[in-house]
C-alpha cells in the first residue's frame, strides 16, 4: 500500500509540474503578445515617419528588424494620387491614398512628402516637406494623427492613423500645403497596414516638379566615379582594412578610409566592401553593437534604387535619423555574378563616401513603451579627441520592407579607436567579436588540448610515469591537474559567453546544446572522480569503465560543439576555411592517436601475460630438476617491445606537442581573422 501511494505521488508530480509550467508559459506568452499587439495604441510613433516601418513584432524581444513581420510581396495594392502635376511655393495640393480596388481596405497608414532628388529611395536625406490637413474618410471614426518631425515651426509634416486597428479605411484624402521654399521635385511616400501581420511599404506617388524649376540645393548624389584609393593610409588618412593579410597595395576586400578636412572641420569617409545589398559603417565608444551612429548605403529592398540611411542604434533597435549635416554623398555599385539565391557567386562591390562634421550633434525620436509617446533625444558624437571605434557590416535586405536585413557575416570591428584628427594609422579589422575570441580560446584550451592529454596519461602512461610527488604517482597528478584546471578554464569560457551574450541565440542553439552536454558530462566525471571507490573494491572496475567512457563521450560532444561553433555562417569565410582545416587535422590525428595508443596498450598487456607464463614455466625448484631439464630444450616465447610499457615518454611528449600546436593554430586563426 505504501509503495502504491509513493508511486501515485510520483505520477502526480510528473504530470502536474509540466502542466503547471505549460499553463504559466501560456499565460506569459499571452501577456507578451498583448503588449506587442497593443504596443502603439494611439497610432505609429514619430520615428515611423522617417523609415515608414511598422514595428509589428512576432512576439520576440527586443522588437528589432529581424523579429518584425516582413512586408507583403507582389503587385502594389495601393496608390497615391495627386491633384496637380506640378507645384509652387505656398501651393495647395489634394493627395489621396487609396486601394487600387474599391474593395481594398486598410487599418493604418503613414504618409509624408519628401524631395525626389536623384532617385534615392531613402527619404531621410532631406526634410519632411509642407503640412497636411486630412478630412475624415470613409471608415475613419477618429481624425488622423499629425506629426511635426524635425520641424521647429510645428508644421504637420507627417500624418498617420490615430487608432490601433479600430478603423478600416477605404481611402484617406488630405490637403497638403507646400513649403515656402523651392525644394525641387517632390513625391509623396506612404506605408499601409492591411492587418497586423501584413503591410506594404514604399508606396510612392509620381514625381511632381516645381514650376519654378530645379532647386538650388544638391544632395551631392553623384555616382562615385572610381573606387576609393588606399594611397595615403597611415600618413594623410586613417584606414581600417580587412583581411589582415592585405596591404595598401591591394588584396583588401573591406575598408573604411577617413580623411580629415581641417579647413571645414569635416571628415571624408570612404567605405568599400564585397556584399550583395548594403554596407554600413558604425561609429561608437566600444566594439559592441549598441549606441552606434550608423551610415549605410547600397540597394533598396526592390534592388531598383540606391539607398542611403542614417540611424542611431539604441537598445538593439535602429532609430532613423534625418541628417542635414551630411554632405557629398556618392555611391558606386559594381555588379557581381549573381545574387544569394544562386550561391556561391561573386557578390557586388559597393563603394560609398560622405562628408561628416568632426563633432556632430543630432537628434532622434525614441518611443517610450510605458508612456506611449515619442521623445526627441539629442546626441553629440565626437571624432575629435579619443576618437571612435569603427564597425563595418554588410548583408542583404529584408524582402518588401524599408529595412536592411541581418548581417551575412559578423561585422568587422576596429581593434582600437580611430583618431583621424590625431594619429593617422592603418589598422586591420577583426572579423570575430572579442567575446567570441575569448570564449573560443578558453573552451578549446581544455577540449582540444588538456582534456585529450589527461585521458591519454591516465589510460596509457601509468607504467611509465610512476615517480611519486606528494605521495601520488606522476601520471595521476598530471591527469587530475590537466582535467581540473582545464575544466575550470572551460567553465570560465562558458560563463563568460553567457554573461556577455545575455541571451540564448537561436543561431547557435545546436552548438550550445552540444556544448552544455559536453560540459555537464565533464563535470560528472570530475565529481565521480572525487568520490571514486577505493582500488581493489568490488565497484572499482565498474567505476573505471564508466569514468573512461563518460570522459570520451564528453570529449566527443565538445568536439562536435567546436565544429559547429567554428563553422557558423555568420563567421568570416577566411576563418571558417582555416578552422575546418585545423579541426579536420585535429579530429583525424586524435582518432589515429587513440587507436595507436590502444594498440600499444594491447601489445603491452599481451607481453605482460607472456612474461607471467614464462616465469611460471621456467620456475626452478629443488624438487623439479628433471622437469626443468625436460623443458629447457623448448624455445623461449618472444616478447615484443618493452615488457611493461604502454606509451613511452617519447610518445607522450609527441602527442602533447602535436595537439598543443593544433590548438595554437586554432587560436591564431581565431585572433587573426
From TrEMBL:
- Source domain of life: Eukaryota
Q: Which residues form the Cytochrome b561 domain?
A: 401-603
Membrane-topology annotation of the record: Multi-pass membrane protein
From what organism does this protein derive?
A: Macrostomum lignano
Q: What is a single molecular function from GO for this protein? A: transmembrane monodehydroascorbate reductase activity
Name under which the protein is recorded: ascorbate ferrireductase (transmembrane)
Task: Give the keywords, sorted.
Answer: Electron transport, Glycoprotein, Heme, Iron, Membrane, Metal-binding, Transmembrane, Transmembrane helix, Transport
Q: What is its EC number?
A: 7.2.1.3
Amino acid at each position: 500500500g505504501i509503495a502504491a501511494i509513493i508511486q501515485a505521488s510520483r505520477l502526480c508530480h510528473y504530470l502536474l509540474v509540466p502542466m503547471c509550467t505549460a499553463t504559466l508559459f501560456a499565460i506569459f506568452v499571452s501577456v507578451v503578445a498583448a503588449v506587442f499587439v497593443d504596443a502603439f495604441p494611439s497610432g505609429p510613433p514619430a520615428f515611423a515617419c522617417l523609415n515608414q516601418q511598422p514595428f509589428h513584432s512576432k512576439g520576440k524581444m527586443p522588437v528589432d528588424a529581424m523579429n518584425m513581420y516582413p512586408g507583403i510581396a507582389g503587385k502594389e495594392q495601393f496608390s497615391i494620387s495627386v491633384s496637380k502635376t506640378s507645384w509652387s511655393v505656398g501651393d495647395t495640393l489634394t493627395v489621396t491614398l487609396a486601394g487600387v480596388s474599391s474593395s481594398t481596405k486598410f487599418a493604418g497608414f503613414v504618409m509624408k512628402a519628401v524631395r525626389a532628388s536623384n532617385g534615392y529611395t531613402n527619404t531621410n536625406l532631406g526634410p519632411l516637406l509642407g503640412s497636411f490637413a486630412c478630412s475624415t474618410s470613409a471608415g475613419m471614426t477618429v481624425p488622423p494623427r499629425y506629426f511635426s518631425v524635425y520641424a521647429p515651426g510645428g508644421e504637420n509634416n507627417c500624418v498617420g492613423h490615430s487608432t490601433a486597428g479600430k478603423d478600416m479605411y477605404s481611402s484617406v484624402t488630405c490637403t497638403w500645403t507646400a513649403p515656402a521654399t523651392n525644394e525641387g521635385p517632390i513625391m509623396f511616400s506612404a506605408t499601409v497596414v492591411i492587418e497586423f501581420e501584413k503591410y506594404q511599404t514604399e508606396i510612392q506617388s509620381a514625381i511632381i516638379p516645381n514650376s519654378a524649376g530645379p532647386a538650388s540645393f544638391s544632395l551631392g548624389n553623384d555616382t562615385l566615379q572610381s573606387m576609393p584609393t588606399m594611397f595615403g593610409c597611415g600618413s594623410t588618412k586613417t584606414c581600417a582594412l580587412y583581411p589582415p593579410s592585405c596591404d595598401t597595395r591591394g588584396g583588401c576586400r573591406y575598408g573604411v578610409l577617413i580623411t580629415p578636412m581641417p579647413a571645414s572641420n569635416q571628415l571624408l569617409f570612404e567605405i568599400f566592401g564585397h556584399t550583395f545589398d548594403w554596407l554600413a559603417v558604425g561609429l561608437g565608444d566600444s566594439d559592441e553593437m549598441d549606441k552606434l551612429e550608423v551610415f549605410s548605403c547600397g540597394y533598396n529592398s526592390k534592388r531598383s534604387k540606391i539607398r542611403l540611411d542614417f540611424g542611431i542604434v539604441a537598445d538593439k533597435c535602429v532609430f532613423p535619423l534625418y541628417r542635414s549635416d551630411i554632405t557629398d554623398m556618392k555611391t558606386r555599385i559594381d555588379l557581381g555574378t549573381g545574387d544569394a539565391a544562386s550561391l556561391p557567386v561573386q557578390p557586388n562591390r559597393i563603394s560609398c563616401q560622405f562628408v561628416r562634421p568632426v563633432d556632430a550633434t543630432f537628434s532622434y525620436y525614441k518611443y517610450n513603451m510605458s508612456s506611449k509617446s515619442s521623445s526627441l533625444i539629442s546626441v553629440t558624437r565626437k571624432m575629435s579627441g579619443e576618437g571612435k571605434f569603427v564597425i563595418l557590416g554588410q548583408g542583404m535586405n529584408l524582402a518588401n520592407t524599408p529595412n536592411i536585413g541581418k548581417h551575412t557575416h559578423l561585422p568587422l570591428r576596429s581593434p582600437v579607436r580611430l583618431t583621424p584628427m590625431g594619429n593617422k594609422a592603418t589598422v586591420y579589422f577583426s572579423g570575430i567579436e572579442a567575446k567570441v575570441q575569448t570564449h573560443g580560446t578558453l573552451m578549446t584550451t581544455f577540449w582540444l588540448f588538456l582534456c585529450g592529454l589527461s585521458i591519454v596519461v591516465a589510460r596509457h602512461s601509468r607504467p611509465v610515469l610512476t615517480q611519486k610527488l606528494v605521495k601520488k604517482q606522476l601520471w595521476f597528478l598530471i591527469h587530475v591537474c590537466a582535467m581540473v584546471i582545464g575544466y575550470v578554464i572551460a567553465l570560465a569560457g562558458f560563463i563568460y559567453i553567457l554573461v556577455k551574450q545575455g541571451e540564448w541565440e537561436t543561431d547557435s542553439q545546436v552548438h550550445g546544446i552540444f556544448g552544455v552536454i559536453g560540459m555537464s558530462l565533464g563535470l560528472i566525471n570530475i565529481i565521480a572522480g572525487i568520490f571514486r571507490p577505493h582500488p581493489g573494491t568490488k565497484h572499482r572496475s565498474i567505476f573505471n569503465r564508466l569514468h573512461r567512457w563518460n570522459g570520451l563521450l564528453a570529449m566527443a560532444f565538445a568536439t562536435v560543439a567546436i565544429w559547429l561553433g567554428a563553422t557558423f555562417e555568420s563567421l568570416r569565410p577566411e576563418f571558417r576555411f582555416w578552422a575546418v582545416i585545423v579541426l579536420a587535422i585535429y579530429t583525424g590525428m586524435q582518432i589515429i592517436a587513440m587507436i595507436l595508443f590502444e594498440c600499444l596498450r594491447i601489445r603491452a598487456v599481451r607481453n605482460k601475460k607472456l612474461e607471467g607464463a614464462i616465469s611460471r614455466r621456467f620456475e626452478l625448484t629443488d624438487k623439479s630438476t628433471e622437469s626443468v631439464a625436460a623443458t629447457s630444450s623448448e624455445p623461449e616465447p618472444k616478447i615484443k617491445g618493452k615488457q611493461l610499457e604502454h606509451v613511452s615518454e617519447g610518445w607522450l611528449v609527441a602527442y602533447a606537442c602535436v595537439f598543443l600546436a593544433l590548438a595554437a593554430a586554432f587560436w591564431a586563426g581565431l585572433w587573426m581573422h
